[in-house]
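Exercise (ungraded).
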Amino acid sequence: MCGIFAVVNDPDHHAAQTTLDGLKKLEYRGYDSWGIAVVEHKNGTLAIEKHIGKIGGATTALPAGDIAIGHTRWATHGGVTDGNAHPHVDCSGRIVVIHNGIVENYQELKQMLLRRHHRFTSETDTEVIAHLIEDRVKSESVETAVLGVFKNLAGSNAIVVLDAKTNTIVACRNGSPLAAGVGKGQFFLASDVTPFLKFTRDVVFLADGEAVILTATKLRLLDIKTGKDKRLTPRRLDWKLEDAEKGGYPHFLLKEIMDQVTTVPKTALINRNEIAHVARRLERADRIVFTACGTASYCALAATYFFSGVGRETKSYGAYEYTPFSGFAGKKTVLFAISQSGETADTLIAARNAKARGAYVVAVVNARGSALERLADTTLPVGSGPEIAVVSTKAFTSQLATMYLVSRACTGNYARAVREVQDLGKTLRRWQTKKLRHDVLDLAKTLMNQEDIYIVGKHVSYPAALEVALKIKESSYIHAEPFAAGELKHGVLTLIQKGTPCIAIGANDETRLELLSSAAELRARGGTIIGITPFTSAEFDVTVKTPDAGPLTIIPNVIVGQLLGYYLGIGRGTDPDKPRNLAKSVTVK
Ligand code: GLU
């Protein structure tokens, strides 16, 4: 799940610095360690620097050079040590490799290489790649050698190989993301586009089974199986550099929370034709299934409530639990696979399974050019722009808005839903003020030293409770447990003591009175009740009032939870952009 970056033809010979800056934008993908390799401008030798820890404040003393590769690691094989940090070099010092993924057959490859007297300096699976290429470049071109080796690697992998002898970079993709940037006389490679946006917006997203070769003069796209050249047609992205910058905020997380005043209404302006098309498919469908992981899975659950509101029964599954049910998928199934990155391994597997049984797959994604997008029959990009913080915020609310639009399109109410989402944008702008932030900050101060927080919601506010609990856990590491309000009396009440913080999330809908009864039950056991609702009530000790937006009230309600998680994290000294043990796109099973 690491971050990969490479540059060829740095105009000022600052390839190492450009790589360091690029990696800083990819740190969200892994932050166990980082490393850079550069070919020295002066003498053509390879210089490498690698360290454990986050790259955030790092500087580099690497020498001047025009070509470099770099990596931020999310360790899978081998501990978090300087030696296990990428890049990894062969015995001769000619071939240097960075890698995203897991070489599943590395043990047997390593045994074979050890028998051939290769010297290993790390415990990683990655290092075998460098030594395998080393053997082949003795008699083959580096392109042929890399493609040949890559074909023999089991698992989902992306590799970038720098050959210091020929100043060539060869990169291959199978399962892990890679994008190539085509600049003016410069080429880039990265796990996502944000690190090279300031140089170019012309991008080639590699598909599985594709490779690129970068030299000072040329960028070639190849089919790995046949070794043949493919047509290179870069796509121009409409993402702006500012989207990938903090814009004056101290953290990406806060910036992305505040961005929602524009990203939510923007969602209503895209996908009109695609949604109409999907709605027609849904008319003929006998099963409608949503599948996703993590935050996106709460969008999937919310979607079941949106659809029941228009009289359609649907199901949602955590993608990691879908396999036993995939056998029910058939030609009349429509499966929505929801994923910020479009690279989530479990979601991809679920979508593939359903598709293999004839299901129509709709990808609901934020990042573009992903594996999920390629696999899907229709893609609904949610358009919230690059999401850098590991904790998902704006992509989630745009996914929610998208699923709401789709549900309403099924009953011919698309145009009205578009207005509702746009109106919500205006409402958010009026409501997401400094005062709201101060109110949530004050609330966070009262909760900062708590060990446990319980969160309840009913109907569409239940996925809101799940998501708010996740935001608090991810951002602040406080144990936050969500429940369906109706579940309280079936066991949970034992946990409530004097002063236990309980958050009640609700909308101005049919659940209002039941939510208030639950709040009263919690209070009767000593709980301190915090309402996140569009209404006030004597049952709440504290209320953060949210705008009433009908079924879309879930969006402002979750925004309060996002802010609460953020401020709790700040108060407890976590890094809100990069929570411990997590990476943004989970490209491993
Ligand atoms: N499996 C490799 C390692 O543990 C790469 C992990 C990654 O994708 O960061 O070093």
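Further reading is listed at the end of the chapter. For now, observe: Residues 554-572 form the longest helix (19 residues). The first strand starts at residue 3 and ends at 8.
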